[in-house]
Amino acid sequence: xxxxxxxxxxxxxxxxxxxxxxxxxxxxxxxxxxxxxxxxxxxxxxxxxxxxxxxxxxxxxxxxxxxxxxxxxxxxxxxxxxxxxxxxxxxxxxxxxxxxxxxxxxxxxxxxxxxxxxxxxxxxxxxxxxxxxxxxxxxxxxxxxxxxxxxxxxxxxxxxxxxxxxxxxxxxxxxxxxxxxxxxxxxxxxxxxxxxxxxxxxxxxxxxxxxxxxxxxxxxxxxxxxxxxxxxxxxxxxxxxxxxxxxxxxxxxxxxxxxxxxxxxxxxxxxxxxxxxxxxxxxxxxxxxxxxxxxxxxxxxxxxxx
Length: 306
What we know:
Helix content: 25-40%
CATH superfamily of the largest domain: Type I PLP-dependent aspartate aminotransferase-like (Major domain)
CATH topology of the largest domain: Aspartate Aminotransferase, domain 2
Distance between the termini: 41 Å
Strand order of the largest sheet: 4-3-5-6-7-8
Number of strands: 12
Shape: globular
CATH architecture of the largest domain: 3-Layer(aba) Sandwich
Number of helices: 10
Structural class: alpha/beta
C-alpha cells in the first residue's frame, strides 16, 4: 500500500483508457493490491481533455500517467498542460513517451514531468533496453534489490551493449529529427492516396496533433487483417487495428475508447513510416493497396471474428 503522506493514504492513480497495455495491465495489477485507479476517457481523436484530469484528482491521488503519443493512432496529448494541473495539486506525473521519442522534440524540463519512459527499439536502437527519466528529488523503490547498479534502482550486471546502443540511437535521433518533415510529407501523401482509393476511408487520430510518421485509417467494410496479409505477400508491411492477429477476437481497446464500433476497429490499418522510406515506396503502396481493394479474389469483407 502507498505510504501515508500528511496523514492521508495516497493510493489513487489516474491514467487513460488508451494507454499501452504495459501501463493498463500494471494499473489493473495495482487495483488487485489495494489501489484505486481512474481511467479517463478521451475524445474521438484520442486526446485527453485537461479539465477531465483536473476533476479526477483527489486528496488521495499519488500518480498520474498519461502517454505523450498513442502507439496506434499517433495522437499527441498536451502533456505540458496536464503536468501543470498535476503540479497545482502536488501530484507526481509520469508520461509514456516510447512512441514519441525520436519523432518529435522532447524536453523534460519544458514538459515538467517527474517520470518519463522510453524504449530503444522505437528509435532504431536495440531491442530489450529502455530508459526511465527520474526528476531530481523523486524517490523510488528499486525494481530489483541487491547490488547498487543503475544508481541503486536495478541490481544486477548492466546490459552494457544495450545501454551503449540506446545512447547512440538517442544521439542520432537528435541529429535526424529534422528529417521528420520529409516523413510527414510521405504520410500525408499516403493518406491522400488512400482517400482517393476509397472516399469513405476515415483517419483515426487527431489531425491537429499527430506524430509525423504514423497513420491509422479505417477502410469501412474491409477486414484489416485481410489487407495486411494481402499486402505482405506483395512486400508491404503494415499492421491491423485488430488484435485478431494475436489470436484474440477483441479489436483494439484504444480505437474502441475513441468511439469506434467493433467493426470499424476491425477495419483499421496502421502505417508506420521511417527514415528509410522514400516517396516512391508510398506511391507503390497506394498502387498495391488499390489492387487489393479491387481484387475480388483477395478481398475479404468484414465479418465478425469467431
